[in-house]
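In practice, a research group might receive sequence data for several interacting partners and want a quick structural hypothesis before committing to experiments. The following worked case mirrors that situation: the sequences arrive first, and a predicted assembly follows.
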Amino acid sequence: MDSKTKALEVTDLTVAYQRKPVLWDIDLDVPSGVLMAIVGPNGAGKTTLIKTILGLLKPAAGHVLIHGKSYIEQRQIVGYVPQRGSVDWDFPTSVLDVVMMGRYGELGWFKRPGRRERDLAHDALTKVGMADYADRQISQLSGGQQQRVFLARALVQDAQIYFMDEPFQGVDATTERAIVTLLQELRAAGKTVIVVHHDLQTVPEYFDWVTLLNVRCIASGPVSQVFTDDNLRSTYGGRVGFLSRNGTATEVAYGHPV
Amino acid sequence: MTTAQLEIQLIAVVVAAACALPGVFLVLRRMAMMSDAISHTVLLGIVLAFFVVSDFGNPLLMIGAAAVGVLTVSLTELLNKTGLVKEDAAIGLVFPALFSIAVILIGVFARNVHLDTHMVFQGDLVFAPFDRWQVLGLDLPRTLVVMTVILLLNAVLITVFYKELKLATFDAGLAAAMGFSPALIHYGLMTMVSITAVGAFDAVGSILVIALMIAPPAAAYLLTDRLPVMLGLSVLIGAVGSILGYWVAHYFDTTIAGSMVMMIGVLFGLTLLFSPQRGLVALARRRIRQKWEFSQTMLAIHLLNHAGTAHAEEESRVDHLWEHMRWHPAFAEQVVRYAERKGVVRRHSGHLILTDTGRNLAQQAMMH
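A structural hypothesis for the assembly, expressed as tokens:
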């Protein structure tokens, strides 16, 4: 894999909170145009990895390249969907306004969103099936609707590579289907999508690439090669009790964590 | 109304408006207590700067105060970051420390200066019209000039950085990922709060500044779900409360600043009770209505389930309803009356008959 086709290149990345390492020496290469899941138990450092890649946390060692350059240079081509619970949904603003926030990075300091931003936001809301909710106050949304709004916000960023932190957390089955379809459309359009995911069962169905993480990077690669019993056991310890045929996980006792 | 009276009210309104604007963001960022800390510690900045310039009219006092305000925030964060002290405790440790240094300095070095505890805690609007500046050929009270400048500064900064402030307040993570430094915005806002606190200091004192920053936005928050409207309403509530407060003080011949804050508190209390969507009264009414609607639905489902069965006759008798539903007889009677009024049931020789409306209601309720 030469650096041109690498969407993401993480080298020797160690991240620590108060000298307690959360990620140990992560090496990770993600090719362009894949839909990748990051899986691992609670406290494995999945969110930390994403936040460090996006420059929100300072690594103790190592570095990150996005399409061959540093994050700061590539900011405009990176889309970010934080955990739904990381914001205050009682904030006094409308659905359309939240989606337009996705354009702020492109606008830069001082410049205000205008007609173009509004149109893009409406289009994105239509894509996630939330067109009728544009003027709603965000506190009136259900969990699934909140997640769709966050996705619409990422869509208007029009990025090359997306990082999504648990977009399936607490959403209904319909929304989950809608999100998966959307992610697959993004991949079909040549984008790279990296998703923190919790449900091991759906990994082979939804994703084509997977990274197994538990403080260290256990394995990373195509789902068919990497998503094996052995790797899962090294990632989750003894907590995954399941058997598989032809090397892929088919049945998982360790479902959604509480 | 005399000119002095008019000027005092004008000052009151300008102070309230200047405080309400940054206050909106303090409330939304859940940092109300930081205004408490800053409004006290700016005193240290004033005292230190006063030692340098020996003049209360000097703008350096503002800069000194703003610097100490920012210092308060960073010391609090530093203490919090050690992981040994929680954030609220950190605020409670830092601000009394800085404030006490200021109080000691005043006590030791500046006994003869008009910087007493009365001024610190209460301020005094009555004397504001006596301290005058000549600005652009006009003879104006100093506090009015200072606070107007601060109000305009706040309004301009919030307008220019509206998008950035909104994003950093709603989603600091995305703001940082997009390259808008939330830390810079945070400290910018804290500087604004510090400067506003100093300016409002000699008008209303340090404790009342807190109320002016927090109460109007807290009330506005209950009235709207749009940020621009919240900003406008906060200014309006602050201004109306200030004028009401002035006249209350005038009538009872008492402190203006205290009365202003009391009236703003009253406005908040009224909003808390009577806000059309989120007020306590609206909530209570909604809950009561839901209770009746739910009971009515239960009644309709009960009648529908037994319609056409062998027990239909028995189950639909009005005077036995309470036994079947395990309701208090009086409550059962009220539910039946409510359902009758809504056209859900009819009474027919001591029995309840479900109307078409009632049947629809029951069927729809069970579909969910």
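Before designing any experiment, note the following. The CA atoms of residues 252 and 352 of chain B lie 62 Å apart. The first strand of chain B starts at residue 132 and ends at 135.
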